[in-house]
Structures are given as structure tokens and as C-alpha cells.
Amino acid sequence: MWQTDSLWFEVAVVMTIAGVGSILLGHFEEHKPKWRRLLKIAIILGAVLTVSATLGRVWAFGLLALLLVVVLFLHAWWLPKHGVNGWTGEPRERYHELIGHRK
Prior knowledge:
It is a single chain. By secondary structure, the chain is mostly helical. The chain has one domain (about 5-100). It is about 70% helix and about 0% strand. The chain has helices at about 5-25, 35-55, 55-80, 90-100. The longest helix is centred in the last third of the chain and has 25 residues, at about 55-80. The protein is elongated and about 45 Å long.
């Protein structure tokens, strides 16, 4: 029942990360349409599953680790360097200006 030797394990890991990320950092993507947010998850899931099926699980989790490092870099260093709180995304106007979002 609890075997981890199938691609469903990767699906569970990616979807868990997406769920937690959406809860904790979803306010950074409020301005994006829902279809685009869903597409991002589908692309990441597809990439991880493709890498896992072709190169192996270690490479797939390496890809996930690389993506998480990029997210940490952006939120912990790059956003604060540009005057935006990396946790709350405030001031909201500055964040939208920084990413080029037009209302």
C-alpha cells in the first residue's frame, strides 16, 4: 500500500509542495489568472515526471531542489534587495512595479 517505487510518489511530492506554496506564498500570484497558475503547476509536474521517468528519481528531486533554491533566493534576497518584503509582498505597489504588472 505505501510503496514509493512509482511515479505517484513524485506526483504526491510535487502537489504537496504546490499546496503548501500556494497557502504560504499564493498572495504573490493573486494578479495572475487561475488558468495560468494551474498551467504552472502542470508544467512543473510534467517536467518532474519526465525527468524521473527518463533520468531517474534522483535527478527529478534535484530539479525540485533547484526550483526551491530559486524560490528561496528570490524571496529571501532579491525581493528584499528591491524594497519588497519577501514573505508578505509588501508594499504591494512596489512588488507589482518590480514584476511589470499593470493594473
